[in-house]
């Protein structure tokens, strides 16, 4: 890398001019973020992998639409929209009991990298949390995942979801409270500090 | 400011406070309130708990690399094709308007002349349009085109007869590139087939003459209505519908 390169990232504009290697650098940089968004939205490892792939392919094919925008919100919007479409397809298809079981609570992918410092959440709680996420309406789930899991701020989320700040605020608040309500049904799963007071 | 119970505003405000999304004045107000309100303090704790759990979810490693292979290097030429497609599609309302105006002018010309020869010409043209539109309806029914696009193709095909051929080709191409169905692509070629069909003409012509004289629902009137519907439908598709489509490929 050129040590004198400025802080302005020229890879998006190079990608727009057809530079696939510049685009692929952006893919490498953002694929973890996109994959995690897709997984938290769809609840299935295979579906998340498919949607991530689809998102980057769609991004490359529509690279002309990436104008002044930063790559991150742009690719996240593409991924979130694909996940929304996939969720709607699932609703239309008659769901088998297997589908319901898959959506209700899916163990995380086996190649999950265990964080040795992550002692707060047991594997069971992680599964329950993901299952609870799947019970949120798609809009609330998107907003909560983007805010609480991916760490985006309200303005970024509003731009990404093409809605107002007020709507984002509302979706996040309602999503969080609904998750809390779902998790309260099995309080013994919650670590000590999370348990509701008697 | 005193809050006397929970409502949606309280929850949203606390949630936004948790995320640091309130300005200094609002944040200060929330802190003062929390100092004295047990109910809201409990709610605040619940929101914090959920937020903490979610951020404690581990970041998953992607199962593989999603880098695009070299076979994708050819594809950026396609985005260049996209703007012309949008441009052509946007021509559809203009083409439909032109066709509608043309049909109205024909109608005006029809009433202003009492010449039988002119009537016969109009009847002949209307009948050809009807025959072409019937063929196109049959082709359209076999495809999976949305109904509005079917209506759009009727007058655009008819427009190939009366209106400028360039506009009809543009609209036909709009239908073609939008739909990419071979049966719809035939619309472009159908519009150029202007010869009257021997089997059909003698049967329809007398009826057409009579209906054009009177104030009844003539073929011309039907085509005007269809053109108007096509104008409204294509206008909706071009101007209003994009607002509802997903934003993935739009800035």
Outline type of chain B? elongated
Q: Give the strand tally of chain A.
A: 0
- Summarize model confidence as the mean pLDDT of chain A: 84
Strand tally of chain B: 0
In DSSP terms (H or I, runs of 4 or more residues), the helix count of chain B works out at: 10
Distance between the termini of chain A: 58 Å
SSE run of chain A: HHHHHHHHH
- Globally, the shape of chain A reads elongated
Based on helices, strands and strand pairing, what is the structural class of chain A?
Answer: mainly alpha
**Please, what is the average pLDDT of chain B?**
66
Secondary structure: helix percent of chain A: 55-70%
Give the count of helical stretches of chain A: 9
The Rg value of chain A, from CA coordinates, equals: 18 Å
Main beta sheet strand tally, sense and closure of chain A: none
Give the biggest sheet of chain B: none
Going by helix content, strand content and strand pairing, the class of chain B is: mainly alpha
What gyration radius of chain B follows from the Cα positions, in whole Å?
31 Å
Would you mind describing this structure in some detail?
- The complex is a heterodimer of chains A (198) and B (251).
- The longest helix of chain A is centred in the first third of the chain and has 23 residues, at 20-42.
- Chain A is mainly alpha-helical and 198 residues long.
- Chain A has helices spanning 11-16, 20-42, 45-61, 71-92, 97-104, 123-134, 138-149, 154-161, 165-184.
- Chain A contains nine helices and no strands.
- In chain A, α4 (71-92) packs across α8 and α8 (154-161) packs across α9 (165-184).
- With 251 residues, chain B is an all-alpha fold.
- Chain B contains ten helices and no strands.
- In chain B, α4 (77-112) runs antiparallel to α10 and α6 packs across α10 (219-240).
- The longest helix of chain B has 36 residues, at 77-112.
- The model of chain B is unreliable at 77-84, 140-194, 199-213 and 246-251 (pLDDT under 50).
- At the A-B interface, α2, α3, α4, α6 and α7 of A face α1, α3 and α4 of B.
């Amino acid at each position: 890398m050129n040590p004198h390169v400025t802080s302005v990232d020229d890879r998006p504009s190079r990608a727009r001019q057809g530079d696939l290697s510049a685009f692929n650098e952006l893919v490498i940089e953002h694929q973890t973020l996109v994959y995690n968004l897709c997984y938290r939205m769809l609840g299935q490892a295979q579906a998340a992998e498919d949607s991530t792939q689809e998102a980057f392919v769609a991004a490359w094919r529509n690279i002309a639409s990436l104008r002044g925008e930063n790559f991150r919100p742009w690719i996240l919007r593409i991924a979130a929209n694909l996940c929304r479409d996939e969720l709607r397809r699932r609703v239309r298809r008659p769901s088998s009991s297997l589908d319901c079981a898959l959506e209700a609570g899916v163990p995380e992918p086996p190649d999950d990298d265990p964080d040795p410092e992550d002692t707060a959440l047991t594997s069971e709680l992680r599964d329950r949390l993901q299952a609870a996420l799947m019970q949120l309406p798609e809009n609330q789930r998107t907003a909560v995942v983007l805010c609480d899991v991916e760490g985006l701020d309200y303005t970024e989320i509003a731009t990404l979801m093409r809605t107002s700040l007020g709507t984002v605020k509302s979706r996040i608040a309602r999503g969080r409270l609904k998750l809390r309500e779902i998790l309260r049904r099995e309080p013994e799963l919650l670590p000590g500090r999370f348990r509701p007071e008697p | 400011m005193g809050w006397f119970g929970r409502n949606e505003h309280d929850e949203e405000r606390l949630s936004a406070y948790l995320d640091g999304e309130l300005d200094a004045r609002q944040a200060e107000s929330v802190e003062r309130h929390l100092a004295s309100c047990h109910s809201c303090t409990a709610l605040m704790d619940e929101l914090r708990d959920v937020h903490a759990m979610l951020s404690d979810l581990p970041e998953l490693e992607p199962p593989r690399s999603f880098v695009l292979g070299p076979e994708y290097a050819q594809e950026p030429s396609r985005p260049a094709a996209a703007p012309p497609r949008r441009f052509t599609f946007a021509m559809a309302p203009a083409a439909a308007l032109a066709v509608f105006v043309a049909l109205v002018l024909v109608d005006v010309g029809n009433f202003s002349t009492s010449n039988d020869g002119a009537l016969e010409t109009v009847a002949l043209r209307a009948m050809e349009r009807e025959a072409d539109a019937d063929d196109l309806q049959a082709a359209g029914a076999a495809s999976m085109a949305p109904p509005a696009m079917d209506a759009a193709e009727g007058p655009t095909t008819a427009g190939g007869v009366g209106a400028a051929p360039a506009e009809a080709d543009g609209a036909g191409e709009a239908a073609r590139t939008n739909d990419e169905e071979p049966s719809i692509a035939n619309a472009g070629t159908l519009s150029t087939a202007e010869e009257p069909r021997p089997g059909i003409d003698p049967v329809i012509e007398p009826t057409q003459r009579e209906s054009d004289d009177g104030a009844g629902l003539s073929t011309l009137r039907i085509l005007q209505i269809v053109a108007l519907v096509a104008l409204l439908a294509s206008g909706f598709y071009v101007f209003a519908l994009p607002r509802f489509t997903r934003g993935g490929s739009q800035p």
